[in-house]
Amino acid sequence: MVIIRLARGGAKKRPFFNMIVTDSRCRRDGRFIERIGFYNPRATGSEEMLRIQMDRLTHWQSQGAQLSSTVTRLVKQFGAQQKATQES
């Protein structure tokens, strides 16, 4: 089964996560098929906190990929950000 989840990167005490498409049997930080975004929980000031390639996300979902619970939460947050940006 293909799953969309986060892979941890960054330094000690300074996490950075890549949003990846991978086989569910692969390790968290192991081999992946495609990188479709990132999440930086420690972003400050003008740094970008979250970026998702929505066209690739919908493509993989149409192919049957499942979202992890954290990625589901982040996609909802990204949608709210996009909506707020468009209204401004």
UniProtKB/TrEMBL annotation:
Keywords: Ribonucleoprotein, Ribosomal protein. The keyword Cell inner membrane does not apply. GO terms for biological process: translation. The keyword rRNA-binding does not apply. GO terms for cellular component: cytoplasm; small ribosomal subunit. One of its GO terms (molecular function) is structural constituent of ribosome. InterPro entries: Ribosomal_bS16 (IPR000307), Ribosomal_bS16_CS (IPR020592), Ribosomal_bS16_dom_sf (IPR023803). It holds the Pfam family Ribosomal_S16. It comes from the Bacteria. HAMAP family: Ribosomal_bS16 (MF_00385). Belongs to the bacterial ribosomal protein bS16 family. NCBIfam families: S16. This is Small ribosomal subunit protein bS16. It comes from Nitrosomonas communis. The gene is rpsP.
